Structure of ABC transporter ATP-binding protein:
Amino acid sequence: MSLAELPPALGAENLTKKYGRRGRTALSGVNLAVPSGRVIGLVGPNGAGKSTLLHLACGLTEPSAGSLTVLGSRPAASASHLARVGFVAQNTPVYGSLTVAEHLRLGASMNPSWDPDLAKRRIGEAGLNPARKAGQLSGGQRAQLALTVAAAKRPELLIFDEPAAALDPLARQGFLRNLLEFVRELGASAVLSSHLLGDIEQVCDYLIVLCDARVQVAGDTRDLLAEHARLVAPRAEFDRLPAGVEMISAEHRGPHGSAIVRARGLSAPPPYRVEPVSLEELVLGYMTRAAGAPLAGAGAGEGSR
Ligand SMILES: Nc1ncnc2c1ncn2[C@@H]1O[C@H](COP(=O)(O)OP(=O)(O)OP(=O)(O)O)[C@@H](O)[C@H]1O
């Protein structure tokens, strides 16, 4: 079956999650259709709902309303469906009193699809001593162990909640490289939440920006980058933007105006100048908009934003 024929890796319709009867709404009316075979970056500020979405995808918690599918089925619908999803929780937890080898034995006993050769090879490549207790490993080594255990069950979808947050830049680099190698070797999809936009830019080909319980934008990173630009012009020009241009966020200094905008094939005439944006700028633009920063289009006479 080709990738295009596979059900979405993640599909959500009006997905809503509230904690407790009067609790905070962690997700509100989320709609998603993320194709299989992608490395998906899930980004957003603290408390945006990222972990909640990942926990829902793993079946660790239930939606309050709406629906979510993972690889075409309800999350954790059966033991066989559980085996198709690998989850590495925040801080890559491992059992401190168990050795590396014992982690692999435990993984083998719990997962019918366990691939002992893959696990052994990856442990060797990561330079982990099988006899070492996990509690004695460094953060980077623990992350490699958790990644190996999740991947050796040969899942079709790997889910990571801020997997590399505690790692130094070199360890992070190694971790992300391994993650990509696993994804390629398994032919799997992966979703990872992270605050590290550089990491997301480096490894992800699909982006979901989640702010304040809602999806702000989602899509192929290449398409999103092609559809967004920085528009530069004298500030007064932002009072009325060219047709078809959606303002995402603006940053004006004195008489100079600059804004992240969305428009397909934007070619604004002078005095506008159109510049490409990085993924980081795009994400920050949506985060700024969701945080309620006023837009330049609302009136160029306002103060610097
Ligand atoms: N078990 C829970 N009980 C009550 N509220 C919760 C629970 N888990 C999360 N929340 C709330 O739901 C909202 C979303 O939290 P979530 O952990 O999903 O955000 P996040 O985007 O992963 O944040 P961070 O980047 O800080 O990890 C927050 O307001 C949080 O306080």
Q: What stands out?
A: DSSP finds nine helices and 13 strands in the chain.
